[in-house]
Amino acid sequence: MENYPFGSGRPDPGSFPNRKLGEAAMRILPEMGDELALYPGMLGYQPLRQVMADRLLQREGVAPPVEEIALTNGSMQAVTLMAQMFIDQPGDGVVMEEFCYSGTIGAYQKEGAELVGIPVDEHGMRMDALSDVLKKRAAKGKLPKFIYVLATFQNPTGAIMPLERRRELLQITAQYALPVVEDHCYADTVYEGDYYVPALYTLPAEVPVVHIESLSKILGPGVRLGCFFTPQPLLGKILQIRRDGGTSSLAAAVVYEYFREHLWTHVHRINAIVKQKRDAMFEMLGQFPDAFEWFSRPKGGLFIWVKLPDATDVVKCEQVAEARGIDYATGKAFHVFRRDVPYLRLAFGYASLEQIRAGIPKLAECVIETQR
Ligand SMILES: Cc1ncc(COP(=O)(O)O)c(C=O)c1O
Q1: What is the mean pLDDT of residues 355-371?
Q2: Is 308's C-beta closer than 6 angstroms to any atom of ligand 1?
Q3: Domain spanning 4-15+265-369: which CATH class is it, in words?
Q4: How do the domains of the chain map onto residue ranges?
Q5: DSSP 156
Q6: Which atom of ligand 1 is nearest to the CA of 9?
Q7: Domain 18-262, CATH class in plain words
Q8: What does the pLDDT read at residue 295?
Q9: Is 289 buried (19+), middle (13-18) or exposed (0-12) by CB count in 10 A?
């Protein structure tokens, strides 16, 4: 039984606006005419795309044209589509952070890509390492097909890539004509007001940048809504390989009707709740310095990337923790080559404050008991 759910990156369950979404559905569905009798089209329900554009404008100061935004079934669909777009044959390379979202690692492996992991530090993907890898690969005629990057609240490390490094990334990719895929699904889960680094798509670039957003982290993964955008002609090419008939207009309309008035109040409300949980988790981790060190103190996102003592038997630790009802994500799941690294990722959004306060001491026991 899972008593301490620190495994996956879900928002606070109590803050899901069931009633408000129900009221939104009652308002909008009767007004939709025959729209639900039609396929949504490859871009999807226009009013929600407009809300997405307004959200980007407010956050980034620059919004893409609404006709360049495509709704997707969660952001994961967009993440996967990018491999289908750029990977022509098995073994084509994709550059990503050495520690990267496990879902992307799995999806890109399934699409036959060779994963090229670039070391990270507390500021995200390291540009010296990226430059070296691309230089060597160019010399061998084995340049990767695209770069997938989590520049803001990187999953799992929580790192934010500083502006100068973002500019450098775009310069390096321009040198090798590599498209950039920017997965930005945590950009609105912010707990400290001084965070702001512009998204890559807002910066001057000589290569195409595909930007991906999600509603899973600010609303809930059950709504399965996300979007991506990029200028033509690349957008048209990506849409051509899409084979799902489009994203649910029903879900999009209900969320539009709720978000058109409540987007930012909702985001600020849930961030305040999740911030308390992040703070509680750090407070608890700090009580067990023999078991835990953390990579950084993220100002946003839903995770803490925790370093365990080197002598930890990470496989045994997971087994012991599981038997005691503690769920977390192993470091191995986020390593591009699935190495047994002495790390784990703790998600703090979904668990209650009580579960955090009771579960972290139990996890510390598991770590301490499984030293070799
Ligand atoms: C970096 C990253 N990208 C994409 C996703 C997929 O999210 P969804 O498909 O629910 O939008 C996740 C989910 O955890 C994630 O962490």
Answers
A1: 97
A2: no
A3: alpha beta
A4: 4-15+265-369, 18-262
A5: T
A6: 14
A7: alpha beta
A8: 81
A9: exposed
